[in-house]
Design a protein that fits this description.
homotetramer; 392 residues; alpha+beta; paralog of FGE (formylglycine-generating enzyme); 2 domains; 4-stranded antiparallel beta sheet; 4-stranded mixed beta sheet; 31% helix
């Protein structure tokens, strides 16, 4: 899988990030720990220089894990020393960026590991299946959203990526959002109804993708004896939890599901836009209700809705929610100055925005304005679906 | 070039369109002219049935041109007969759609022919170079655009494609638009300044594209003796007209040019959004000023600005203007019912909107709300650039 | 199909061959008919200069057919004039080479046309099916071949390609050759016995090829209603003639068939080597018995054995017989001097030798020493199978 | 590199071989150590069942190295127990085959490791450069070889692979063989003379390969400061030893070099056939002179000729010598019965024979009749060149 990287590479790359963007920028008389590491562990920063070819990341048997760990300790010590000397005004901002970056790779490390294990016929288990509470199914309901002028984008003093700014006005049509995420049980109905074999539901590129790759179900679903579906997870291969949110679906699948569901339910269903999502999700955060199934819950899988509260549930955590918005610059967008300007802006083409964080995301990493993005065919992330419905 | 089709195929396909969407829908006791033609000349309508593989269009030596022309005459006669009988209320709408469709293929036919000839070392000439008036260069100037709430999308009774609807409100930031299109002379400065070799200006996917394909200039630019640029056109290989709009550039190039120009001019330059474009262009059409260099001028190439009028020039005709908007459904969008619903909606992913028509477009085909769309790397169309500038 | 070329290209290329290797070499004050044709219609001669990319041959809509025909007439006239002036000693040899070359392209033209028509859902007919005599099936029998020292390679004064020389000694083990070619009926048994789905019979590369391309039968076999096999030919789609030789099979298929037949018949069956074939075939030619179903018979398809004569039948014509010999230089092989040295020698790697000519080959083109060669997966030629059997 | 496998995989695969072909065949009540290992570590034996996709070998992070080592110890114990019980007559033969197979993988392990390290910008060192004796250059000389009828193939009671049998007669033309291997200094002259940029020397497929992959020198040659050549080896990146045999060249390069050398020296030079090589090499082995630079010398690189003895030097060890013989079945060849029959026979297409073993081959593994084989573009093995010359 060309998108995934080995665990050791992730560890080395986040170390590289601190060395390059903190130490090199702020340390007097900076010298790199090892010159070749600058090439080996640079992901995509052209301004920093050469990069090791991405598909060869799996071939980097040297440096050894012990050497990478030693490098990390040395970089940590130097960053600590810098922070204690503490004069540069922007140093703390850069260390914050390094930590946010590392949080992103903590999530990628889990998604890459899940993919790696999924390719292994031994079906390795990362962590035993936790004991989960009995699920109480919650019927799908529609939570109306007012339209009109609203404002989205990052506000306040906290950390945000450049792509969340500037805060700006947008005009929304009224609509309704599903009260919860689409479940695996609902998705199984889509599969059973030949949803993956009917071009009516699919974008043209999605249909090509389904045909070319022989896609029949979410990434880690597997047929068990008797045709029953099972799911490969970080807990190994387990029965499908019907009330848990569906996960590891692409934008193509999410969009096709919405079109199928619209026909089934005779409602103008679709995926929400990112502005609709943020407009609905921001008040929850402001009210201290941005809780959810994040990596700290240690579930490492999606969980059924807890309880039967009214309003919007599962907006944060569980799965990254595909929107129907292209990942594009906000009006007035400016990339950060310097090489860190390559962090986000240069990827703003042919990618789709996802919102809300997942069961593999650190809770402190997520904001209402947070924009994740992946190509329409990506599905090794913990990505899922919340439906929207046009107001009549 | 997998995107291009032979001339005979275009002729047969537009005939197929009338046969399938007019005759089959409205003719009593309909029988197709030849059953195999329904497969051979179906472009992408899944609901109509099987299609001949697109890359094999060049291999269809049978039916012969004479047979296709005979088919066309027969279909024309049957459509005429239907129109004279004239009872079905929606028949005229379908014939209108067939005509609009044929206008699109008239443009494609020219762009495909240009590409075909460009691959031939004989450099064939489609039509001799017309005698053009002396060009008076017009300096680039910025025409301010007010922001605020506005409305875009098709209005009124005339024909429009489903993707132009529904008309809806959007909120715009204030900005300025360039008074004219970017010229070939300006683009030559970008090339001379190593713009195609500096990753700073490029989207990541654009940089990969430039590197992988060895792109160095617009599609049909060629180095002549002494390093001077020439251009392959439907008039053969000719000197570059420096004051004519640059053409045959991809979205990647358009976006990179804007970033380079922003650095050169120390202005927040960028491509416009489609809403900004339409908001500025609609009043021109309403005022009867949607003139421009369309296919009827018979120039078949871009032309320098005529005169030095203030305000926005060249908004219509000359080149399709790349916007920085993804081709996505408008709020409340519904596809047309039936197989014609595949016309537009299923392509709404990973494509970018272009506006305004080109020197190969029939004048009557264009509206302020017209949305053309192509992938970010496409450049065999007559596509060019108008810059926008953020208001400070 | 990247191996096939359009008819007009073949016509132009054989004209190019005469212009380049006859006129340019022998005509005083030679000037090419059109400089660009030298690039457009050069197949693979590096020493002659640039070549037009092979996959773009289908895009050469200019020069028109009329222009190519005019070129051909002009070249013919100039060659005639040269022959009448007639002084250069090697001129006749070169004209002979040009004629032999043209014979090869006459065969390729038919095989390429068959392939082109086979891709067309209209299933065009090149020529109506001839009325064929009733076939009398001839049982397979083994004709013993003595081993020992023998001599192969071209002998005598007639024309031969460089790859047939020098004549040299080889040592052969005794074996037996099948009295006739493998028939379509026999091949249908192989198909029915799941021969294409059992890796035991296949070379590893052949098995990969079968799997990757979903091969289930010879190239032009097609399932008709009821599961019956039909065959696409230059006469359109017709019933499979069970007693006619199987044709359009690759070396992979030929080799797999031999291994399956060996298991079926409990005999050490295999394909013959080219030396074994030539050793057996040369006496027939010497005895004036090199007759067969060549292009002059106008059948344009394989024919059942005529009569029940003892000895080796169908050695010449009908199908090119796959051998189990790699196409390699004979001991002491020297390529021709000059650019014509690229005719054969540079292809001597990873190709397999075929012998005997086919129903699309001109009769005068074939010799016992003639070596045809194609990659192991090629099957759009009229290629088939004669089995050999080790002597116990 | 799709041809190379990780070290752990090699270890597991040779263990799998013993488990599958010794234990499963001979152990009463056999049960595999772990059922999934049978799939994971099966290289290409269809008859044994499913195999893990080769390109995914690098992704097998489970089982861990400790688990593989434990498996190996368990299999070793069970094989020992079987040997002590010792009743089956063919058991010793199968264990011998397992050992021969393991010797092959010992060599592959070194060549794969060298390739892996060569991709790492850290240029890891497998073992420090040994202190080598001063090289005394030996001029190239020609050792005449009589032609006529000879016999090749395995003789005697010792172990041999099926592909070396049956022993059979061949007729050879007289020729001469180079007294030593082609050196790196000689090869540097070929490079300096633009040998990689002149299509005259190359097979057509070789020229395509050179162009498509940008090949300029042997696989591990690298330009150092000042244009001087260095070489990446298992001892890291070192100066080129001019008198040591050139190594890591493909058949394409070897063949091109021979053609260039022929033009340079105005001699009919070429690569030898495998029969010529064996005919010359067998007497050396019979005379106890099959010594050479094998893995036991611990040089792990090619070494200059030691001394100035007359006759053929370096026939064994140093490099696998490319022949100009396709890897094809000998007359009367029979594959081994059962799944081990897939060991050699099914690869007999489009591969070329190499002879003599290399500096990474165990000495006891090599025989005069030993046939190694690789595709014409392979060069990560220790492969080199000995020239042959036609007798006039």
């Amino acid at each position: 899988m060309p998108d995934a990287s080995p665990v050791k590479w992730h560890l080395a790359h986040v170390t590289w990030f601190f060395e390059t963007f903190v130490l090199e920028a702020f340390e007097a008389g900076f010298r790199p720990h090892h010159p070749a590491y600058r090439v080996l562990f640079n992901s995509y920063y052209q301004a920093v220089g050469e990069r090791h070819p991405r598909p060869q990341r799996g071939l980097v048997t040297r440096p050894s894990l012990a050497e990478v760990l030693a490098w990390r300790r040395a970089v940590d010590d130097r960053v600590q020393a810098l922070l204690h000397s503490g004069t540069a005004p922007t140093l703390a901002e850069r260390v914050e960026l390094g930590l946010q970056h590392e949080q992103q790779h903590q999530e990628l490390l889990l998604t890459d590991l899940l993919h790696l294990f999924s390719c292994n016929p031994l079906a390795p288990v990362y962590r035993p299946l936790p004991l989960l509470p009995e699920a109480v199914p919650l019927p799908l309901a529609w939570v109306p959203q007012q339209g009109g002028l609203t404002t989205i984008g990052h506000a306040g003093d906290g950390f945000a990526f450049d792509n969340e700014t500037p805060r700006h006005r947008v005009y929304l049509q009224p609509c309704a959002l599903a009260n919860r995420l689409t479940t695996q049980g609902e998705w199984a109905d889509f599969v059973a109804d030949a949803g993956y074999r009917d071009p009516r539901w699919w974008l043209a590129a999605g249909w090509d993708w389904v045909q070319a790759q022989g896609i029949e179900a979410p990434l880690y679903w597997r047929r068990a004896e008797g045709g029953r579906w099972e799911e490969f997870t970080l807990h190994g291969q387990v029965s499908l939890a019907p009330h848990a949110p569906v996960v590891h679906v692409s934008l193509y699948e999410a969009d096709a599901y919405a079109r199928w569901a619209a026909a089934e339910q005779r409602l103008p269903l679709r995926l929400p836009t990112e502005a609709e999502w943020e407009h609905a999700a921001a008040p929850l955060a402001a009210a201290g209700m941005a809780n959810g199934n994040f990596v700290e819950s240690q579930a490492l899988q999606t969980l059924p809705v807890a309880g039967t509260a009214p309003g919007l549930l599962q907006m944060y955590g569980d799965v990254w929610e595909w929107t129907r918005s292209a990942y594009l610059p906000y009006p007035g967008f400016r990339v950060w100055a310097g090489a860190v300007g390559e962090y986000n802006g240069k990827f703003m083409i042919d990618q789709t925005v996802l919102r809300g964080g997942s069961c593999a995301t650190p809770r402190s990493h997520i904001r209402a304005s947070y924009r994740n993005f992946f190509p329409a065919g990506a599905r090794w992330q913990f990505s899922g679906v919340r439906l929207a419905c046009d107001a009549e």
